[in-house]
Design a protein that fits this description.
single chain, alpha/beta, seven-stranded mixed sheet, six-stranded mixed sheet, 14 helices, 21% helix, 19% strand, disordered N terminus
């Protein structure tokens, strides 16, 4: 297969892709998760999906296609004003930076280039059940950033991000239709069924009541009276109000009120992260009945001493308790200090199989594809990785970099690494984009998978070496670190690709990223990255507790969260870019 066709020139292919055409307008079908080769489907996607109706991207604007920058950070970026508790306002956009680390850009390429693919990356949404009994808010006594004042608004913020993506009428550089969206993990925060249901509804559309426990009221740290947490509705002079946080009557009632998501108006795929796989994002504790009963039960710990919080934090950070045994002991020792809350079965942890089944549920299909990349073959094999075709000339590969043995850093098992090698080799005539949750530098956890105790685990360095041996790899797109970082990778064998790590949507500046692939017709390929914010207005109104008003507040509170990093937006070369590569 040639690797030079544009999205506008694709025809009916052997994989039943459909191309929609109208006078002066062209649209390309998005990848639908079918098996790239039926023989590979047992480790990736189900063979039956080759018969599925192709999910189609939106129609492109009338030809010639024109760049679409409205609503992107090229046009405007939320900008802090003042000192202390800072308000947000409209600010100038971020310019595009051309990066020639891996290849020299050639003059005249803008007039020659053709679009190969365009898609949106969302990452680290961290949809949070803020009242869950197993949350670690009390670590704030040792680390002020262990709990964020805006955590009750993750659903409203995520819906506003969906609204922004829906409003993009084309890709920022080429104007080509956006083919799909990919979430690169930590879609949920605490491996809770409530969070999984909310995430899937945000993405596929429907009504959500972001509340668990008592259906009539909020029960958690924000109406606890404890001064280490922002008490928005109360007269308590808590530590956040002392730092300038507002008093907002009716905030908690508004935060748990029903909201509606339109769902993405393009197909979307899902990649798993450690917070999706493990309770608290770090504990291999699905078999622990005590922790499961506490998750759905009527007791919640909200306050411990700074010394005790620091000891638990150290255990988590250094992976000294990957199965949560000492965590269970910690909770038992504080049983008498726990407060009463309303029990709720929806807060139960979900297993990897339940995660797959939820994605396969027709209720959450939206615009598809069925399973959002996952298939019945994944269920049968007990895997959470797959490949899919993005366009005639581009494949996508979604990896599972989480380690079921525990801890928040990642790795790959040997079987998956071999599958990745085989998939790249058998699709050598297609460009490849790799998706994962973890970055290459955070794949350092080689703890055995309890389900495969004899299987070796492989680090990010080993994955880099494998990818560098395949000249068709263009990019490795990931998240996890909650920061915009773009890293060039070149190997002695001549392979080169870009690693694109994107900031989260739970920490400021709350971004997603549009990525465009283009053939410059001069021996080079350009990858364009453009960051987008949610649709919420930059300016907040403390009297506006509507769904939109809360989404705006979500962004502003995240800016002001005590202890929050000020560098997560990255440097200019990590934001809006043109990344040049030699054509493989």
């Amino acid at each position: 297969m040639s690797r030079t066709r544009s999205v506008a020139g694709s025809g009916q292919g052997i994989h039943r892709r459909s191309v929609l055409a109208a006078t002066g307008a062209v649209a390309l079908s998005a990848g639908v998760g079918y098996a790239l080769r039926p023989s590979d489907s047992q480790a990736a996607t189900a063979t039956e999906t080759t018969e599925a109706v192709a999910a189609s991207s939106r129609r492109a604007p009338a030809a010639p296609l024109a760049p679409y920058t409205k609503g992107t950070t090229l046009a405007s970026v939320a900008t802090p004003r003042g000192s202390g508790y800072r308000r947000l306002g409209d600010g100038p956009g971020w310019q595009r930076v051309v990066r020639s680390d891996l290849a020299a850009p050639k003059s005249g390429r803008a007039g020659r280039r053709t679009a190969l693919a365009a898609f949106v990356q969302l990452t680290d949404l961290h949809i949070i059940d803020a009242q869950h009994p197993l949350r670690l808010e009390y670590l704030r006594s040792a680390d002020v950033h262990a709990w964020r004042p805006h955590e009750a608004l993750t659903v409203q913020g995520a819906i506003a991000l969906v609204e922004r993506i829906n409003a993009l009428r084309g890709a920022p550089v080429t104007g080509a239709p956006l083919h799909f969206a990919m979430t690169t993990g930590d879609n949920t925060d605490n491996n809770a069924r409530s969070e999984l249901e909310w995430f899937l509804t945000v993405m596929s559309g429907g009504r959500i009541t972001p509340n668990s426990g008592d259906p009539r009221r909020y029960e958690g740290v924000q109406n606890s009276g404890l001064t280490q947490y922002w008490q928005p509705d109360a007269a308590v002079r808590d530590s956040d109000k002392q730092a300038g946080f507002p008093h907002l009557d009716g905030f908690l009632k508004a935060a748990i009120r029903e909201v509606r998501s339109p769902g993405l108006n393009l197909p979307w795929y899902s990649t798993v992260g450690n917070h999706d796989s493990l309770p608290m994002g770090c504990y291999a504790s699905h078999g622990d009945s005590y922790l499961t009963e506490l998750a759905v039960g009527g007791k919640k710990l909200m306050d411990v001493s700074a010394a005790e919080a620091q000891r638990l934090k150290t255990l988590i950070k250094n992976a000294r308790d990957p199965e949560g045994v000492r965590y269970e002991d910690f909770l038992k020792s504080h049983a008498r200090a726990m407060r009463s809350v309303t029990p709720d079965e929806s807060r139960a942890p979900f297993t990897p199989a339940e995660y797959l089944r939820a994605h396969l549920d027709p209720a959450y299909r939206g615009l598809g594809p069925a399973g959002h990349g996952y298939s019945s073959a994944n269920l049968d094999a007990g895997t959470q990785y797959y490949a899919f075709r993005i366009s005639d000339d581009v494949i996508g590969i979604s990896l599972d970099t989480t380690d079921a043995g525990g801890h928040y850093e990642g790795s790959l098992g040997t079987a998956q690494l071999k599958w990745l090698e085989r998939t790249l080799r058998e699709n050598k005539d297609s460009h490849a984009v790799i998706f994962s949750h973890h970055t290459s530098k955070t794949m350092t956890n080689t703890r055995p998978d309890p389900a495969r105790p004899q299987e070796r685990r492989h680090t990010g360095e080993e994955v880099l070496a494998l990818l560098g041996g395949h000249r068709n790899v263009l990019a490795w797109v990931n998240g996890h670190i909650h920061k915009n970082v773009i890293t060039p990778h070149a190997t002695s064998g001549g392979g080169s690709f870009w690693e694109i790590s994107t900031a989260s949507h739970v920490d400021y500046p709350q971004l997603a990223r549009v990525i465009e692939l283009t053939d410059n017709k001069d021996g080079t390929i350009s990858l364009f990255t453009t960051l987008v914010e949610s649709s919420a207005p930059h300016r907040t109104d403390f009297s506006d507790l509507s769904q939109t008003g809360l989404a705006a507040l979500y962004r502003e509170l995240s800016l002001n969260a005590p202890g929050a990093s000020t560098t997560l937006g990255g440097d200019p070369q990590d934001r809006n870019t043109e990344l040049v590569l030699k054509k493989g």
